[in-house]
């Protein structure tokens, strides 16, 4: 029998990108632009991809790691204000077992030389299968990948 547990946490990540709000927003809203930075290295296998970026829309992807572990991501977009804000809920799974559920808010503001970017995430981590430290680290890595993608385009 599995011991059930929940751990709640929130974190905030702030960045300045040398790209205008339109380009930063497009990096989330355009599937080709998002594929350049989200979801891990290109050599990893992706399955079950769905991308419907709009209020009420869903995004889904399963990444298959080299050892066969399946990492699932399923998001529902609740609020989308072009070039300014996104609010979405998402769940992560590992081998079809839910490991976390989160609410994320992203705000983008034009600033000197580009955009100021703020991501706030509130999450619940389930049954010891995920934890706040791992999620924050993973999200920081995604923001690093986003910065590289914006700099390259």
Please count the beta strands (DSSP E, at least 2 residues each).
7
Helix content: 10-25%
Q: Note the overall shape.
A: globular
What's the domain count?
1
Beta-strand percentage range: over 45%
| Mean pLDDT score | 94
Radius of gyration: 16 Å
The biggest beta sheet reads: 7 strands, antiparallel
The largest sheet has its strands arranged as: 1-7-6-5-4-3-2
Span between termini: 50 Å
Structure description:
The chain has 153 residues and is of the alpha+beta class. The chain is 23% helix and 50% strand. The protein has helices at 21-29, 31-35, 132-152; strands at residues 6-17, 45-51, 58-64, 70-81, 85-94, 97-111, 114-126. A hairpin with a 6-residue loop joins strand 2 (45-51) and strand 3.
Protein traits:
3 helices, 153 residues, alpha+beta, Alpha-D-Glucose-1,6-Bisphosphate, Chain A, domain 4, 7-stranded antiparallel beta sheet, 7 strands, globular
Fold blueprint:
Layout: E1 6-17, H1 21-29, H2 31-35, E2 45-51, E3 58-64, E4 70-81, E5 85-94, E6 97-111, E7 114-126, H3 132-152
Antiparallel strand pairs: 1-7, 2-3, 3-4, 4-5, 5-6, 6-7
């Amino acid at each position: 029998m599995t011991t059930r547990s929940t751990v709640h946490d929130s974190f905030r990540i702030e960045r300045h990108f040398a790209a205008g709000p339109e380009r930063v927003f497009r990096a989330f809203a355009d599937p080709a632009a998002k594929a350049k930075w989200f979801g891990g290295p290109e050599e990893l296998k992706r399955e079950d991809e769905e991308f419907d970026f709009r209020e009420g829309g869903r995004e889904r992807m399963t990444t298959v790691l080299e050892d066969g572990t399946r990492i699932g991501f399923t998001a529902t977009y609740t609020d989308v204000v072009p070039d300014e804000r996104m609010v979405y809920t998402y769940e992560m799974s590992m081998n079809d077992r839910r490991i976390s559920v989160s609410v994320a808010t992203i705000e983008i503001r034009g600033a000197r030389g580009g955009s100021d970017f703020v991501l706030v995430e509130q999450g619940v981590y389930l049954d010891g299968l995920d934890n706040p430290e791992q999620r924050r680290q993973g999200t920081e890595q995604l923001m690093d990948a986003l910065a590289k993608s914006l700099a390259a385009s």
